[in-house]
Amino acid sequence: MADLSFAAEVWSTLSKHDASGQTEKRGGYNYLSWSWCWTILKDHYPESKAAFSLEKFEGGTVEVACHLTVKQGEKEFTDSHWLAVMDNRHKAVKNPSATDISNTRMRCLVKTIAVVTGLGLYIYSGEDLPSASKEEQEKLDRTKAVEKLDRTKAVEEAETRVRFLLIRQRLTEQVALLGGRSNVPQGVIDLGCSDAIEDKIRAVEELDKLIEAGDQ
Length: 216
Hints:
This protein is about 55% helix and about 15% strand.
């Protein structure tokens, strides 16, 4: 059962963070940096974790669900949110690739953190700042491009580490669905063990094909 007082404490702490400098505009929509969100969450609650599930619908569309557990010592709560696999026009993608699904996982992670903890939630409400004046907002708008260029190497490295961990988690789930490593071709195992993230993504795609073939 969720610790309501702990959930309220988390909301009070994280909803106050200003995320305006961490957004990018693509296709007319604001996107919040998932690596920044995850870093802020783990800085405050390092025992937190996220898990994902997929639901496939008739017609080939797919919905990703993120199950977020926020934990601090003995206190913890879990909540979930979901997001359809969509293209840059926010239209559902039929028969999405592993890359489409991986990207949606990151977007769903951001939205789940926002909905569950309040971190960056005002962005989804169409607001630009939690309580900023128009003058403050205009100032932030003028410096937004500069702030993007000032992203530190530490944040970039954190983004790579988190992405590796999430892909590795997905690979583990896929291998389990196939009944273990003995049922996975050696070439795919080699891709999954590679240090190159592109190889790991290829491994995810190949395992998805094997899983889909087994379901037929």
